[in-house]
Amino acid sequence: MKKQWMKILGSVLVGTIAVFASVRSPRPRYVVHPCAYTPCAPPVLDGTHAGVACVSDQLAHHPAEYTAHVIGVLHLLRLEDRLQPAGVATTSLFQALTQPALAAAKFGSPLFYPSPFGIRCRSMLDTSTVEGESHRDQCLATFAECGVPLDTPVSDGTTIRSVRDLLLDSVATFRLDQREIGWTSLAYATYIRGSWRNSDGDSFTMDQLVKELLSRPLDREPCSGVHTLHALLLLRRLGEAGPVLRPATASLADAFLQEAIANLAKHQCPDGHWGTAWPTGGIPPAWQDTTEQRLLVTGHVLEFSAFLPEDLALPSEARTAAAAWIVRSLRGGDLVLHVCTWSHAVNGLRLACPSPFATSGTPVAARDANTTSGDH
Question: Does 21 reside within a domain?
């Protein structure tokens, strides 16, 4: 009898401690109206450069099938964002993703569905799904990059929810050792301030997330690690407006960025492109050394370089050479490109051009962001 009472008392004590810890644990602050991630590097092409005409031609004549798939719409949404001063939430592409009837007509079913923690985006990582995002949190990260507010309505097919519900599900299912973390990092850097907890009660901080990013070799990450660099750079620019990382973590991230950018300058190929092995300077295997793979990496890098501040800037000669190589590649035959390859190449080229293709907004860290506390 005494043992039973001790066991009950122990259970009550553990539960009390857990409740107390959850109350005392810092709650995340969600950024309801995030600032769009705007470029700050000057264009390297003038108005007479062939790149300007190439961008116009590519945007006007992209394959129609790109809009028939979720990943195509997500990539096109990023392109459209630069041309929509009022934001993307009112565009037909955004509505095709977030309105069930339109999504069902275009993709065969609504893109979002209810989960125990909010709403979830269908994923192509699930073999039973034909249409959906191709990376964890790709949709959420795209919304974050385009500055879509968390209170923007999104339907799960039965009720009207919001982008916040998409974030809450991601947070609840987050694991530090999850297979892909690049898109998650971009989304959390944009929408979350402070620590967060998953559904198991495990608490995480942005410092932990950054250290996990730094521990993963770039050449083993999707898109040759450029999404990792984007996330680190976004956190650095946010830190200019107020502390986001501890000083020691921020220094580690800064050193990592500086080394990566130095390697980009050092390992750029003579004709202007970057290969998949740029982080190490090695020779990629033949199956990775195709025009498509070169365009994929070079487009990602050129796009990323447009967001680098002056103290981290990639040499303008490197950006100019990359832009010229992309122009030659896009015009050099009847390439049938995956939408990811095409969109990053075109967007990178556009950001190297002068207005109206590139926007030169205030750096994200210098803008105001409205935040509100929220539990999950």
Answer: no
| Euclidean distance between CA atoms 53 and 49, whole angstroms | 8
- What H or E segment, with its residue span, contains residue 325? helix 316-331
Domain count, the chain: 1
Contact at 8 Å (CB) between 354 and 230?
A: no
User: How far apart, in whole angstroms, are the C-alpha atoms of residue 250 and residue 229?
Assistant: 13
Count Cβ neighbours within 10 Å for each residue of 2-27 and write b for 16 or more, e otherwise: eeeeeeeeeeeeeeeeeeeeeeeeee
**342-375 b/e (C-beta count within 10 Å ≥ 16 → b):** bbbbbbbbbbbbbeebbbeeebbbeeebebeeee
Predicted confidence (pLDDT) per residue in 297-313, tens digit: 999 999 999 999 999 99
d(CA 261, CA 191): 26
Reply yes or no: is the peptide bond before residue 356 cis, omega within 30 of 0.
Answer: yes
- The whole domain housing 338 covers 29-373
Measured between alpha carbons, how far is 122 from 131 in angstroms, rounded to an integer? 7
Amino acid at 133: E
Alpha-carbon span 89 to 223, nearest angstrom: 27
CATH number of the domain that 359 lies in? Answer: 1.50.10
Residue 110 burial class via C-beta count within 10 angstroms: exposed 0-12, middle 13-18, buried 19 and up: buried
Instruction: Note whether residue 5 is domain-resident.
Output: no
pLDDT digits (tens, 9 = 90+) for 204-260: 999 999 999 999 999 999 999 999 999 999 999 988 888 899 999 999 999 999 999
In a domain, 20, yes or no: no
Q: What is the pTM of this model?
A: 0.85
